[in-house]
Amino acid sequence: MSISRLSSPVWRPFTQMKDAPPLPRAVRGEGETIILEDGRRIIDMVSSWWVNVHGHAHPDIARAIYEQASRLEHVIFSEFSHEPAELLCEELLRILPASLNHVFFSDNGSTAVEVALKMAYQYWWNIGRPRSRFLAFQGGYHGDTIGAMSMAGKSGFFAPFEDLLLTVDTISYPRLLGEDGDNTAIEELEARSILEIEEQAARHPHQYAAIIIEPLVQGAGGMRICRPEFLGKLSKLASELDILLVYDEVMTGFGRTGDWFACTRSATMPDLICLSKGITGGFLPLAVTCATDRIYDAFLSDDHEMTFYHGHSYTANPIACAAANASIKLMHQGGGAFRAMEESHRRLGARLAAEDRVRNFRVCGTISAFEVASQEPDSYFNKSGAQLKRKFLEAGILVRPLGNTIYFMPPYCTSHETLAFVYDRALDVIRNI
Ligand SMILES: *Cc1c(COP(=O)(O)O)cnc(C)c1O
């Protein structure tokens, strides 16, 4: 009996269930606030795992979902087209770099990455020059399916699966230390990364199908920021070496970096881009992988083997597409709230950045992050994160530290006053642990 009481029917994501306490129940959402069953109001500083854009339960998106669900909830996308998907494609092509012309639908970030890897791999096979290796960056995270896991290198999450993974070589990531850090060496770090790619390409000539990066910000790896200049150098090199460039913008897309996408902010153009998380405003699962003509055209053939044989049951679900269309419309109407937040983070973060225990305070668009000094080395597995999280929650703020890295990634509707409150409480929490 005691075993069945201990044993939870729910197996939670990323959770060691052995000592997992029961979770409080969330019952409502309003703007950036999550309301719990016991009446507590929690400020959502992680945008509910980086998906929420306009705040919780936004009425425009809720209405779009209701209206679409009452008209056509779903239809097989290999047999019929529908207006919400067509509108979404048009809209995406309008806001993405001009060279990304073709939209392939799936339903989460990992599958969007999986699709990009398969497209890149099959591209080379289709043109009769097969390649079987990939390049990725240290500290990267691209999802939890097997191809996507492979791209994370030796991150420590995926040790049991090592034998299953694709062949990937990892490149060091030229990380900016932050506003207060010594960034004089950044050009050297960038040159080193570029050199590593050149060396790998010389070691395995014509073997790399693609190089994948989370442009501007590595998310799960610790909110590590690189310069737009690096993306310029990277895309130039990838094109010289003729290696396809994949931008995993699952997290950075839809305003997160202060522009529509990291590629638009850095004025660089990948061959493939993966989008998910914020695409529906955080309401429903949906993802797309967008490709250039060069890739798309390599799949056009009378030979059936050239076909991209990939699809999911809920491909281009009309309700999810309707939510995405409503969310993108709000982003257009919102007067660039996502552009303004960088300035708020910088201004409000100045005091925090000056604290003794705070290191590498950094900002990119709507994201700010810093390390809190502790006895242990900086790492995802640093244990001080759990304590910090508890203290923040007591102050009514949801954070989800990556080890001893704290980050704030609020919905764009979060006011300057609310952010000011969060930064004030952060000072208290950090001074008192
Ligand atoms: C979250 C994330 C993914 C995986 O997306 P899921 O929807 O969780 O499968 C992939 N890449 C990046 C950069 C992410 O942040």
Q: Could you please describe the fold and organization of this structure?
A:
This protein is an alpha/beta fold and 433 residues long. α3 (59-71) packs antiparallel against α11 and α7 (186-203) runs parallel beside α8. A 7-stranded mixed beta sheet has the order 4-12-11-10-7-5-6, sandwiched between helices. β1 (26-30) and β2 form a beta hairpin. It has helices at residues 2-6, 47-50, 59-71, 83-95, 109-126, 146-150, 186-203, 228-241, 262-266, 293-297, 318-333, 337-353, 384-394, 416-431, and strands at residues 26-30, 33-36, 41-44, 100-106, 133-137, 168-171, 208-213, 217-218, 224-225, 244-248, 272-275, 287-292, 358-364, 367-372, 397-398, 405-408. The protein is built from 14 helices and 16 strands.
Question: What is the CA–CA distance across the termini?
Answer: 39 Å
Ligand set: pyridoxal-5'-phosphate
Radius of gyration, in angstroms, nearest whole number:
22 Å
Which blocks of ≥5 consecutive residues have pLDDT under 50? none
Structural class: alpha/beta
Helix content: 25-40%
Principal-axes shape call? globular
Average of the residue pLDDT scores: 95
Strand content: 15-25%
Total strands: the figure is 16
Q: Can you write the helix and strand succession as a string?
A: HEEEHHHEHEHEHEEEHEHEEHHHEEHEEH
- How many helices in DSSP terms? 14
- Lateral arrangement of strands in the main beta sheet: 4-12-11-10-7-5-6
How would a textbook summarize the main sheet?
Answer: 7 strands, mixed
